[in-house]
């Protein structure tokens, strides 16, 4: 997608919450493709220790959520430069919870894993987000597969899956979990907020088989047995703005 086509994304905002897109020019383009979403209900008390001062947990009907999103990042590039597939294209897993600063509802990453070492290093340096290297492979077929293993943390995801039908309607919770347009980051003693924009996620039902999953961070323990919801999406084209510092 060239810059002209990317700018056309700004004409499609009906699906966003009440706040509008930033008035400044976007600085990054990227694609989040073939995404698997796994969602858990989590005790808010477990999550509070992860959340930096200046934002708070965002809850749905008094329930906190954590989501693992396994996808393929493609064509990431600065606004005025081409993407370089060696660096720009890689499989990624992010583990996130839901937060708000009182006005903007977004996500806070508990971990981010990238397939390529160089991509992890550059992404961490350029964005400040907590990227680290993990072994990630995926294959397509009647039953596709996503296989990830982080030797440093012991966290892993192994699943065979198939995309199924698209539901006729989305629930309010479906939208709450997926339509998020801000990312929060604590770096040093400062808190930052990234704004992003994309079309509404196309969500499909997901059929899984041979699902083995374990993600443990501090007191947080996630497994295949206690997954509450799953989604699949073919993906979105994303534009992102420069990070902004939040006073706290």
From TrEMBL:
Signal peptide: none annotated. Gene3D superfamilies: Acetoacetate decarboxylase-like (2.40.400.10). PANTHER family: DUF2071 DOMAIN-CONTAINING PROTEIN, DUF2071 FAMILY PROTEIN. This is DUF2071 domain-containing protein.
């Amino acid at each position: 997608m060239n810059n002209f086509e990317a700018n056309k994304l700004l004409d499609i905002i009906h699906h966003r919450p009440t706040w509008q897109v930033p008035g400044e020019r976007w600085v990054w383009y990227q694609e989040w493709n073939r995404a698997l979403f796994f969602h858990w209900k989590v005790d808010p008390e477990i999550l509070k220790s992860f959340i930096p001062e200046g934002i708070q947990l965002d809850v749905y009907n008094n329930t906190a959520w954590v989501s693992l999103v396994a996808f393929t990042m493609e064509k990431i590039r600065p606004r005025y430069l081409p993407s370089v597939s060696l660096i720009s294209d890689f499989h990624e897993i992010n583990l996130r919870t839901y937060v708000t600063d009182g006005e903007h509802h977004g996500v806070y990453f508990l971990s981010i894993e990238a397939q390529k070492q160089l991509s992890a290093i550059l992404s961490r340096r350029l964005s400040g987000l907590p990227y680290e290297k993990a072994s990630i492979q995926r294959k397509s077929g009647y039953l596709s597969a996503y296989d990830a293993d982080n030797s440093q943390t012991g966290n892993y995801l192994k699943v065979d899956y198939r995309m199924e039908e698209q539901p006729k309607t989305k629930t309010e919770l479906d939208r709450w979990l997926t339509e998020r347009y801000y990312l929060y980051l604590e770096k040093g003693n400062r808190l930052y907020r990234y704004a992003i924009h994309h079309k509404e996620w196309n969500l499909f039902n997901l059929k899984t088989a041979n699902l083995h999953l374990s993600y443990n961070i501090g007191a947080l323990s996630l497994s295949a047995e206690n997954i509450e919801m799953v989604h699949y999406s073919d993906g979105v084209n994303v534009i992102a703005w420069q990070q902004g510092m939040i006073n706290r």
